Amino acid sequence: MGSLPSPHDLSTTFNPMDLTELSTESRLVTDFITQYYQTLETRPVQPLVKPGFLTSQLPEDAPFYGESMEEILSDVNEKIVPGLTHWQSPNFHAYFPASSSNAGLMGELLCSGLSVIGFTWSSSPAATELENVVVDWMAKMLNLPPCFQFSGGGGGVLHSNTCEAVLCTLAAARDKTMERVGDDKINKLVVYCSDQTHFTIHKGAKLIGIRPKNIKSLTTRRENEYGLCPNDLRNAIEADMKAGLVPFYLCGTIGTTALGAVDPIKELGKVVREYDLWFHVDGAYAGSACICPEFQHYLDGIELADSISMNAHKWLLSNLDCCFMWLRSPKTLIQSLAAEGTFLKGGSEMMVDYKDWQISLSRRFRAIKMWVVIRRYGVSNLIEHIRSDVSMAARFEEMVRAASDRFEIVFPRKFSLVCFKLRSNKKMVNGRKFNDDEYEGVKPSRDSELTRELMEKVNSSGKAYLSGVQMGRIFFIRCVIGSSLTEERHVDNLWKIIQETARSIMP
Amino acid sequence: MGSLPSPHDLSTTFNPMDLTELSTESRLVTDFITQYYQTLETRPVQPLVKPGFLTSQLPEDAPFYGESMEEILSDVNEKIVPGLTHWQSPNFHAYFPASSSNAGLMGELLCSGLSVIGFTWSSSPAATELENVVVDWMAKMLNLPPCFQFSGGGGGVLHSNTCEAVLCTLAAARDKTMERVGDDKINKLVVYCSDQTHFTIHKGAKLIGIRPKNIKSLTTRRENEYGLCPNDLRNAIEADMKAGLVPFYLCGTIGTTALGAVDPIKELGKVVREYDLWFHVDGAYAGSACICPEFQHYLDGIELADSISMNAHKWLLSNLDCCFMWLRSPKTLIQSLAAEGTFLKGGSEMMVDYKDWQISLSRRFRAIKMWVVIRRYGVSNLIEHIRSDVSMAARFEEMVRAASDRFEIVFPRKFSLVCFKLRSNKKMVNGRKFNDDEYEGVKPSRDSELTRELMEKVNSSGKAYLSGVQMGRIFFIRCVIGSSLTEERHVDNLWKIIQETARSIMP
């Protein structure tokens, strides 16, 4: 840590909250962020760096003496920014969006500035109550039935992410089930999901002690648009019960990761009610779209679910992190998660103590961020934001479809995710010529090879960033429209780049 | 959601990242925060509000049209701020501090502004590498042995909070143990902690499927300064093994919640190594103090631990949230937590994919915040900050000791937490007079009653905020010095208020 301090350095009192400094530095940082956004469009979306590139540029030890904000920002600019994948770039179409906005940023600033912790109602009453209000607001925006709202006997909470939400509901469902079947039966418990469900459910179930072999991914099929088939679920439950296992949890999805597929909530709900499973609905990405009336039919039957989660930080302009979770019976969750330290004794039943709704004790004041975002933009603009992305995705999908000589849509788009691949026409593979029948056998892998090559070339150009999925024998590209800065011209340009790249590898 | 939009409202394109607006609004919000801090000292630390006070003031539905930032901030000021417990007040001495700073706030602003997600190295390389650098920096600042540093074969990660860190290590230890003893043995696994350990360990262990009766809180004693006794641990392990159980995890603490007690790390470490338990050391609050050489002896023997966690957001000026965790064998953790989605395939062993070091997939860019805090202040100022708080706490403790006619220190202060209670001298309880012998029997509960009354009166005055603990028959007050704004005059004034209030209830 370097040499000892000279007397000079420690002579003045250190004041980490000097308000004049706060004003100067916040201007510096805001200007920096503004410049970052101004130049974002022209930056390579994914950096061309090798592992160790940054570690090797930074000192091995922390500085002993403080440095100026100017020096720090200069290093951010020269060393760090060039090594970032720019999730906010208008040319970022990989994974799912993490959509930022001015209101999201201002909400985060307020959250960090006030820096209160509402783990119990009394530890900061307004923090808890604002969260109660915001989760009810959003429940109504999505047209969730009153049973998921505080005003209707249910309630909600803001977690950091879906895995936290899923983990908490899994634990609640496990404990409720073990109360019924005996607390030595954890090895018998079975979780269901589909082969399209996000791996979060596997991770969460494993974390709460479910045996990996009892986490069952039911196969989905093209004829069901890759939604989980209710009959398959029923058959699996019956078979497992016959084998002495205890089915206890189902995770359905609105907008799966790979394809944006939707599980049939109502039909699945009927099955789980019959067998008394906990039914969680994960709307991490596409749940947000249900603020638009035209998407709300995907939630039909949601009153049969026990819990729902949705990441506002994905598509609702809320910056990282903010995951909504609603429950029909918060009491079941609280029974599982409540743990009392004597100095944290909660109050009456009238008060919500959010420490009992989540994994941790401390928590950020995310509610104020969400409240700022919703108020600043209003439901109307949030709807417009979703519709605009969906319409740009539809435009992109149309362009891909129109180029059917080379491209193929692998799954009909439901939201703002377009899944496509290359279609090779030349019956020449690795220098060998195939006839039609033979060719059908090698085609998927040949198409996959070319599609992967296409994606990698586009990504390494820095002009756009896409991700892909290997599903069975087929590799396809996922193009998500969702960055707050993406305009129609970016989508048109993306398509131009993809076509040019495709021509270069498949002339 | 109100009436339909008029055509006018949706005619202009909605731009959630207008840069002129960003500049204007960030000034508004920064000014708001500055004014908040300017008035913080005079605000009642805990608000006098009743459940429902805020819910009843806010509309039941989200606004359909957007509102201006001025309107929103005016509501924050008039409706929300008066209902907050002000954790950043210089008169806040409850729980543990959640220390803010200008650098912490600027770090959060950069984190939210850049808004990247480094769940794998390749999903934003600089985010991952900066985190590698920062956890190594902090490891060296605490003088942790090289085995916990990336540069020495270990490594670290930034979680949101201690419960996440503990949960991850519990899962890793569980899976490692079950590999050895069989995956049907989860009901046999035993976790050890002391009766002073934070309830997080109970919550975490229950979450990963450990039976509540197998989570064993060993009783601590005054003669060991409420540290966990190594012999008690050994006896418990031996007894449990004889009973067919499988001891697998110990949580030790540096700076317990109630008292700031410290478990004897080296002696406990020797026992756990003998029986091959996972040894986690929780330094949530007082771990930070070990950046000062005079506190580093508490870490003696830390090389015998498997993992260590420390909340920088408590005492290291880092705003919520940031919990450091270091591991000797990251591989064991990764084996337990890795779950692959095909579109998230990680890279070579040279790259750290942080999704496999934590519960969730998405994650905030906390590393840039910590990096800004450490660079802006340097190790020297961070040390000064800790020392200044400790010295103010020592001053407070001295004043309490000097007033031994009425007050009693219940546990010798180690860091910046002072635990004290009232000492009643009048042998009159509920109107009845007692002789000396009889009185010894009723004294603790009488003292506790008065101490609780003292705390509640001070808290309801709004002039300061303290928390208390009921430990056995004794209730005492915890006074933590740690708010970034607290100066000596606040501590002196706090003592004045406490004395006056004590006189009013015990003339």
UniProtKB/TrEMBL annotation, chains A, B:
It comes from the Eukaryota. Pfam families: Pyridoxal_deC. The keyword Coiled coil does not apply. Gene3D superfamilies: Aspartate Aminotransferase, domain 1 (3.90.1150.10), dopa decarboxylase, N-terminal domain (1.20.1340.10), Type I PLP-dependent aspartate aminotransferase-like (Major domain) (3.40.640.10). One of its GO terms (biological process) is amino acid metabolic process. Its cofactor is pyridoxal 5'-phosphate. The keyword ATP-binding does not apply. GO terms for cellular component: cytoplasm. The modification N6-(pyridoxal phosphate)lysine is found at K314. Keywords: Decarboxylase, Lyase, Pyridoxal phosphate. InterPro entries: Aromatic_deC (IPR010977), PyrdxlP-dep_de-COase (IPR002129), PyrdxlP-dep_Trfase (IPR015424), PyrdxlP-dep_Trfase_major (IPR015421), PyrdxlP-dep_Trfase_small (IPR015422), Pyridoxal-P_BS (IPR021115). GO terms for molecular function: carboxy-lyase activity; pyridoxal phosphate binding. Belongs to the group II decarboxylase family. This is Tyrosine decarboxylase. It comes from Rhodiola sachalinensis (Sedum sachalinense). The lineage of its organism: Eukaryota, Viridiplantae, Streptophyta, Embryophyta, Tracheophyta. The gene is TyrDC.
